[in-house]
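Example (one chain per record):
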Amino acid sequence: MSKIGPDYYFRLIKLVEPIRDEALNNKKNISATYQSFVSNNDARITAFSKLMNILSSLQLSLTFIWRHLMHKDWWRKTAKKVIPEKDLKIYVKEFESFSKIGFVQLMFSAVESSFRMFLRALDPVACKGSTSSFRNIYMCLLKSKLSTYSPESIKFLDLFRHLRNTIHNNGVFFDERGRNIVVIWRKVKYEFKHGAPLEFVTWDFLMEISDTIRELLKTVALDSNLQTFKQEIPDPFAK
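Predicted structure:
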């Protein structure tokens, strides 16, 4: 039905699995670090709950494509009428695009909401009560509120922020000043050309992004300044 077969999606499922499993290990370790004075609704812990839920949901989406959407028999049993093969390819592509956009958006939300809660706890008045732009939030948190930070993390968050903002224009990058923007992260140049779709957002790239988010959240949650903040940081959206 497509040049990309079921094995391609099975490989993606297997790429997600170790990242999700390591996020679970991180959650367990961080819960143990803070267990004496916080609950599981603390933002240092819920950051990983959100991450695990997003990764698990992505696995379900990819599994649905692998087990069902890539097979004509499933379509014949499910559809009420015969669907031309060219339309089936479009449906699979659109569902994959839906999954990819949702994944990026939710991963970004997990990082942004967690960072805003961390900053608000450490300095309630900084960045207008943590209501400023996300770039202001992560620059303030990483550079002035934590005990240490890696300059590479700023480059990464700049990259991720620009990537997420293309969702507003269906994957096309637009800069308010009409500029092209280049971000160099891990010695790789990523180009955001004004008015052009991104060329580098593959699933393999998104898996690298995901694991970097996991590692960054772990580093921040275990920073000594957050460890000495011996109060619960309540996550209002935790269940």
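Caption: The chain has one domain: 6-227.
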